[in-house]
Model the fold of this input.
Amino acid sequence: MKKRWLLFVLLTLLLTACGGNDNVVNVYNWGEYIDTEVLRQFEDETGITVVYDTFVTNEDMYVKMKNDSSQFDVVIPSDYMIDRMIKEDMVQPLDASKIPNREKVNTEFFSDMSFDADGTYSVPYMWGTLGIVYDKTKVSPAPTSWDVLWDPQYEGRIVMMDSVRDTLGIALVRLGYSMNARDEAQLEEAKNTLIEQKPLVYAYRLDETKDMMVQSESDLAVMYSGDAYVALSGNENLEYVVPEEGSNLWIDGMVITKDAKNVDNAHAFINFMTRPDIAAKNAEYIGYSIPIPEGVALLPEEMRNSHVAYPENLEAMQLEVFNDPSDILEVYDRIWTDIISH
Done:
């Protein structure tokens, strides 16, 4: 799949560079986070060529955007990064008249997006939770707490996230603090517990984690629910749990950059991706959850009834949406350096 994907990207870039089509939309998204057939369908229906690039973390995306935001039209960051980009005037208000399918989005997701509650700048793309995937044949009893990631009996069989935001958030909520804690004493306490945990950790990973779990390379892994759904589909011994102390509810959204060169095409792309049949097709392929009820209804029964993708008890979970941490980024960077260097 990755080879076909690379070929698709290279061909698209080549056609654009050669002047094959100046009617384009430049899209910047997470890796392995879209169905390439959906992109081809958009091109067929609109005549607009998609020039597509990917990033690994919100922070990588932010740096590239700061250097030159005009190279992209549509970007798909996470909640807290959208918040920061709005504050720093990096995105432009959307023209709702050009995105009629926005009305298909469950309005409850806008209420969770306190940074953009009226959807002035963004349209939700995917959502999910942060939890633990574990091998039921090797982890007993079934974990209900983040504490299992600090259990010495699983030394060398634990995969943590290569992400300071998520990993530090886990340590904070495990200690009874908010995942958005700003108190430096609390952050230091969380850091120290992660340093204590490090000898138990096999690796810090992101996209590779689901394949590692499917291949039984580890017993426990911190994963986003979308990756967890894919992993569980590939290995019947796996299960997913959102620990009882609480966790993160994340929402990734589509925005248009402040200096976008193809604004009308960007609106057309967002409207297309929010169309229920397209959202469903995309979600089925990548395994993540969509905020569009009509689209959910089109999904295979196994997916729409999945406790991983669409948990019934979502409101009962102790979930937090990440806030913009830009005011304490230096502290975060120092903490992450301390953890990794040990």
Remarks:
- Strands lie at 24-30, 49-55, 74-75, 123-135, 158-161, 201-205, 220-224, 238-241, 247-256, 319-320.
